[in-house]
Fold each of these.
Amino acid sequence: MSLEEYNQMVSDQDGGCKICGTKESKLYVDHDHDTGKVRGLLCHCCNAGIGLLKDSPDIMQKAIQYVRANQEVKETPRKKNWLSLFEVPQESGIVSSNTKESLIGMKSGATESGLQHPSSFE
């Protein structure tokens, strides 16, 4: 591939990776390893990814199915105070009034055992 052909391909792809569209200053020439035919220009991650998946559409499809099957619904994270873990209605009998007071006393970082609560490391 000549520099002129490379530059034309960059232009045809709007300067981005043919798979993910990421615009990078360095795009890699992707080619079929059996035929040598140039398929497009890819960013480092996509080029490495398809190479690590052995350029196999079957393996890539299995990877897609695997990721989708294990994908969790992403919720907007809510920052909560660690004490909110103990917010159980008092009438439930699970938490006594002095339990939460004891925990509030521990919020400074030291617990009754003298160990620091993980939140105090932030």
Note: Residues 82-121 form one domain.
Amino acid sequence: MAQGFYITKEGYVKVIVPKNHPLRKTGHRYMFLHRLVMEGIVGRYLDSKERVHHKDGNRQNNHPSNLELFENQSLHAKRGVRNARIYKRLWNAGWLEERYLKRKMSCREIAKTLGCGEGTVRNALIVRKIKRRRYTLTKKALKARHKGAIALKPRNLNPKEAV
């Protein structure tokens, strides 16, 4: 992090907050680069409710022509539905069922594939009435869990029966 920026696990670029920025006064050290670029475009600081959208879906492409400003999250979400970048696949008749039920992909893996949040995938599962699995284990993890269960000795409920 010596360069003054880093990339979050979600794929956004964060940079050190400029000295004269209001976020600095609230104790923040880093801020999203796309918000800083948008502030330069509109010529003012952004409100915390305002959202910046990456038109091409690439969270590291912070070129001014790729950014779009929305007043709030609701308008940003509606834009996503109209654009159908994520939702086209998510609401496609067999796409979600095939990934979740047949390929045994987790909500996290599907979300990563689409570039959306896990909550979006979970909501789609609920709407489509697909019964959610409690967890997804690989065959290797399942085997390891099974071996651990065999190795454990059963507990004695009554201390008098202990050998």
Note: The mean pLDDT is 78.
Amino acid sequence: MNYFELYPGDYLRDTTRLSMLEHGAYLRMLIAYFGEEQPLPADNDELFNVCGAKSSADKAAAIKIAERFFPIGDDGLRHNKRADEEIEKARRRIATAQQNGSKGGRKPKPKENPPDNPLGSNPDSPNGTNPPTHSGEALHAPHATFTNNVVASVEVTGGAIQTARANSEDIGLQARIALCNELAELGITGATAMNASLVTLMVTHGVSADEVLATAREGLKRGIERFNWVTSTLFGRLADAQRQAHQAALGERIARATPSKTLGAIQKLEEIKREMAENGSTDWPAKAALSAA
């Protein structure tokens, strides 16, 4: 799902004692939980991939948050009760929307208010006013991509692509649909063409379908069938590659830098010490002063 509700009051009430690093770990885990609509893995290494924990401090924060907010359930996975409740609410809303859609959708609004209801208020409401709308109604509602007014795809809960009438120009979407079909055949669960993580990996970072499939097969060898492990692992490898590239670039800049006068003087003194040690000379101060002059 590409959207979930965050209640600031509830969140701050439960997290007042967390450090900034722990807040980051908690939010990364929540995003992964809602994004894949699946509980988190119990294995620490997989959990570190999910929340991007690299340093020892990152990993300590991840373990603390996981133990406190995502306890391991009977199924061997880490659950968050509130997240499970919100996901279930979203699924019920989607089911209702689908039922209404099969009946022809909502009735169209009249162009003009009827004479007996000039203000256009809702007669079914107790006080005659229109019922409030909630942003949560859009929570994981079917998402559609439009290209030249043609529906390219519709994603629904459960990871099924209900329609795939993609415009011929939208090659990226077609490739992701084909990729998700291959992942499903392999036994990977939770992969959808409009998954936010998959779109970011392939569109923004240029990750190929072959790389996604290879990573999925790595997970299957370890008994991991969840798509969120695949995307988290790929994001982790991208971060590692960027870090290595940065370190390599920094090393090149250092190597190209012109030695300072101080560094040159130190190197010269070290050479003098080595020469005197080889020759058995003990007149170090005089020799050093002579060289400096």
Note: The two ends are 74 Å apart (CA to CA).
